[in-house]
Amino acid sequence: MSNNKRKFGFWSALFLVLFAIFWVGLLSGNILWTSDTPPLEIISDMDNQPKVKAQAASNFFADGKATREPVEYTVPRNGTKYATSLDDADTKNINTIPVTPEVLARGKNRFETMCTPCHNYDGKGNGLVVQKGFANPPSLVRPEAVAYTDGKIFHVISAGQNIMSSYADKLSELDRWCVVHYVRVLQNGGTHPKMASAAPTSAPIKQQ
Amino acid sequence: MFTAKTNQKSKTTILAGLALLGFVSLSSYFGFNNDVTDVGYRPEQPIPFSHKIHAGELEIKCMYCHTSVEKSKHSSVPATSTCMNCHIAVKAESPKIAKVKESWETGKPIEWRKVHKLPDYVNFSHARHIRARVDCASCHGEVEKMGVVTQVKPLSMGWCLDCHRNPQEYVVPARQISGIFTGLESNEDVAKMIKYEKPTVGEGKWIPAPNSNCTYEASGEYQHVVGKVKTDGMDAVQKASLAGLVMPKKIALGPENCGACHY
Asked: Which of A15, A72, B105, B237 has an alpha carbon 20 to 30 Å from B8's alpha carbon atom?
């Protein structure tokens, strides 16, 4: 009899300890543990619907991808015929985007997002990725680059150059022209040649 | 049948039953909570990609890779070619990069594991939130400090509503590391702008969903933005050429009617 009583005492104590740990974990509202297993769905409702989702896998298509690629030789409906080589970039890539504060602000934002890893914020190169071992790009503000036409800069962004890849998938055509305008701002020392009075008003954002 | 111990036994049974009932009900109530089930999900990725190195140390903006976030409902996982933009030269010999290179050469996608998952009946739009200058960290935490991405917010409906009712308490204004386009305003201005008007639900007036039928792109919402593109004195060609410019959206209290997200 006394044996049984001792057993009961042990189990209840263990239970209380586990119970306390469980409740502290639940109610503290902090992450106490991380898990590699997908979240538990106790009542799954309609959380997981058997439909095609963005960038998911799919057994329906032969290549196993739910996301489809355009058929070969597809051209955009409103697409413009841009140059395919640097030689005809001057004549085929015509910059029709007007210089407005919005365009310059957008160009600054896209430049600082897409270009600064290598070209740095001032366009002179030696960005943080370059310091990790990427080839240092030539300065964007050197005289040869200033002499580039808008169309040529557009072509370099679209098709890449040397080790630089194409940024056509990351920057829309309009965004590329905005970046071209912003490169002119960098080359002109903070103002756009066509808009001498107004520097880009998107203030430099400091890291918080 | 009734012994001297019967009283004791029945008392114990009742107390144990009540304790069990309380335990089961309370733990199921809290245990069903997304705070418990979802927060802390940290899947191992096929390639140990570190946001801490790429975003934290190298200051590559979130939108360098997740490009579709300001234009689409979904924030895209980058194509392998994006990795190869740099890794064609940087650490090209590393065995971890060999896997990326293999995917790049064969065209077979890397099977990244999704961390943040909303229920499939929720039509959350990244573009709306990004264009309202809501920083990525508001929902995903400070990913630039994470070696392995971990879910830090419950992403439950109650959590969404908490923020939609009191955004000034939860919204992180756009930070530089995100690469969010804030229009013509500086970040300080944006922080000041995150001041919302209280809804007038108490007076029986519902806030209409601004655009609940998912025609975000087609409706040309950039027309209604704060930083509206000034087209005075431009000819038709120039006006048309600016039509696709991504501009921030007016900061306003988001929809609180059910149909705005569930339709």
From this structure: A15
Instruction: Decide if B42 and A35 are in contact by the 8 Å CB cutoff.
Output: yes
Are A137 and A119 in contact by the 8 Å Cβ rule? The answer is yes
Q: From chain A, pick out residues whose CB is under 8 angstroms from the CB of B89.
A: 133-135, 163
In chain B, pLDDT over 90 holds for what percent of residues?
23
Residue B179: DSSP 8-state: T
Q: Cα distance from A143 to chain B (closest Cα, Å)? A: 26
- Select the residue from A109, A130, A164 to test the B interface by mutation, using most B Cβ atoms within 10 A: A109
B65-91 burial code (b ≥16 CB/10 A, e <16): bbbbbbbbbbbbebbbebbbbbbbebe
Quote ipTM for the complex.
0.79
Q: Is residue B53 within 8 Å of A131, Cβ to Cβ?
A: no
- A79-106 tens-digit pLDDT: 667 777 787 888 878 888 888 888 888 8
> What is the Cα–Cα distance from A59 to A149, expressed in whole angstroms?
48
Q: How confident is the model at residue B46 (pLDDT cuts 50, 70, 90)?
A: very high
pLDDT (0 to 100) of residue B200: 40
Test A39 with B37 for CB contact under 8 angstroms: yes
Q: Which residues of chain A have pLDDT under 70?
A: 1-8, 25-32, 78-80, 196-208
pLDDT at A62: 86
Chain B interface disruption, residue of A8, A24, A34, A180, most B CBs within 10 A: A34
CA dist., res. A117 & res. A120, Å (int): 6
Provide long-range contacts, Cβ within 8 A and 24+ apart, for A24-30: A26/B27, A26/B30, A26/B31, A26/B36, A27/B30, A29/B35
Per-residue model confidence as pLDDT tens digits over B74-92: 899 999 999 999 998 888 8
B43: CB partners within 8 A, 6+ apart:
A36, A38, B113, B115
Domain A86-187 superfamily per CATH? Cytochrome c-like domain (1.10.760.10)
pLDDT tens digits along B145-187: 998 999 988 888 888 888 877 777 788 888 888 988 887 766 6
Interface A-B, measured as beta-carbon pairs within 8 A, has a size of: 174
Contact criterion met (CB below 8 Å) for B132 and B77: no
Q: Do A42 and B36 touch (CB under 8 A)?
A: no
What residues does each domain of chain A span? 86-187
Q: Distance from B133 to chain A by nearest Cα, in Å?
A: 13
**Terminal CA-to-CA distance of chain A, rounded, Å?**
68
Question: Please, are residues B138 and B194 in contact by the beta-carbon 8 Å criterion?
Answer: no
